[in-house]
Write a structure and sequence with these properties.
With 182 residues, the chain is an alpha/beta fold. The protein has a single domain, classed as 3 Solenoid (UDP N-Acetylglucosamine Acyltransferase, domain 1). It is built from two helices and 19 strands. The strands form four sheets. Strands 2-5-8-13-16-18-19 form a seven-stranded mixed beta sheet. A five-stranded parallel beta sheet has the order 1-4-7-12-15, with helices on one face. Strands 3-6-9-14-17 form a five-stranded parallel beta sheet, with no helix packed on it. The radius of gyration is 16 Å and the shape is globular. The chain starts with 11 loop residues before the first helix and ends in an 8-residue tail after the last strand. The model has no long low-confidence stretch (mean pLDDT 94).
Length: 182
């Protein structure tokens, strides 16, 4: 995992931004009706997120730093997803992250005294699906049309057109655009 860590998250400015975001989340984002994706897209954009029209951020999604979030058209962060976006989180067009999943862009380097924070971006590819309650670790790229099974824990990249599951996630099968499995 490459470290993209910068100490800017520890600055007073960053802490104030996160505090303001938390207040807006509680007051205006979280209580919004389920179908008001446009309203939530607007709120996220106000805090620096790159959110395309047609993206579906649900009201119960927890986003640590919206300014590190990119959601392309048709992408979805489902109910109760946790998006720990210390580093970039990118959902490509029509990517789906299902309910209760956790996108975690940060960890600690346990090999060094003080266990400094290390970060790496997460990318969920075009038409990929992260099923319910899955964990995606720092630096992971889930490839185009890949499927991460429910409750899987992913710590390595997932190839395009691949189904993975388990803890740690292992390849279950690869498939082709025509629907043929290999």
């Amino acid at each position: 995992m490459k470290s993209g860590f910068q100490r800017d998250f520890q600055t007073t400015e960053n802490r104030v931004r996160r505090l303001l975001w938390a207040a807006v989340w509680w007051i205006a984002y979280r209580p919004s009706p389920r179908r008001l994706h446009g309203w939530r897209r607007c709120l996220l954009r106000l805090f620096g997120a790159i959110i395309e029209e047609g993206a579906h951020p649900y009201p119960s999604v927890r986003i640590w730093a919206p300014w590190n979030l990119t959601m392309r058209a048709g992408s979805c962060l489902g109910d109760y997803v946790r998006c720990y976006s210390v580093d970039r989180v990118i959902l490509e067009p029509h990517a789906t992250v299902s309910q209760y999943s956790y996108l975690c862009t940060a960890s600690h380097d346990y090999r060094i005294n003080g266990m400094p924070l290390i970060t790496a971006p997460i990318t969920i590819g075009r038409h990929a699906w992260v099923a319910a309650d899955a964990f995606i670790g720092p630096g992971v790229r889930v490839g185009e049309r890949a499927v991460v099974g429910a409750r899987a824990s992913v710590f390595r990249n997932v190839d395009p057109w691949t189904v993975v599951g388990g803890n740690p996630a292992r390849v279950i099968r690869k498939y082709h655009p025509e629907g043929e499995e290999s």
